[in-house]
Design a protein that fits this description.
It is built from three helices and no strands. It has one domain. By secondary structure, it is an all-alpha fold. The longest helix is centred in the middle third of the chain and has 40 residues, at about 40-80. Helix 1 runs antiparallel to helix 2. It starts with 18 loop residues before the first helix and ends with a helix. About 0% of the residues are buried. Keywords: Coiled coil.
């Protein structure tokens, strides 16, 4: 698992770990917090249910992150498109008319 000290750069250029690493750490912390409780059979089933819900939430968060990342990347692509210069458009029009 990459650490902050390894200087991993996120999409936005900050030196923070990727979101998936943060999600894994959050899940591990939540699961370990749940394991502290002494468990009987019912408590174990309840804990499994909570862990399952946590995993589902984490997957939803990761999906949302990927959607936002795709949205940001889409905006960058739109900025890169250049308009045709007037000179180029005029030359093209003359060439079409000459045919």
């Amino acid at each position: 698992m990459p650490l902050r000290s390894e200087g991993i750069r996120s999409h936005f250029g900050s030196s923070s770990p990727p979101v998936c690493v943060c999600l894994e750490v959050l899940l591990a912390a939540s699961a370990s917090r749940l394991l502290v409780v002494s468990m009987g059979a019912d408590e174990e089933a309840a804990m499994q249910e909570r862990i399952t819900k946590l995993v589902e939430r984490m997957e939803a968060m990761e999906k949302r992150y990927e959607e936002l990342l795709a949205l940001v990347e889409g905006k960058d692509e739109k900025k890169k498109k250049k308009k045709l210069s007037c000179r180029y458009v005029a030359r093209g029009s003359v060439a079409i008319l000459a045919q």
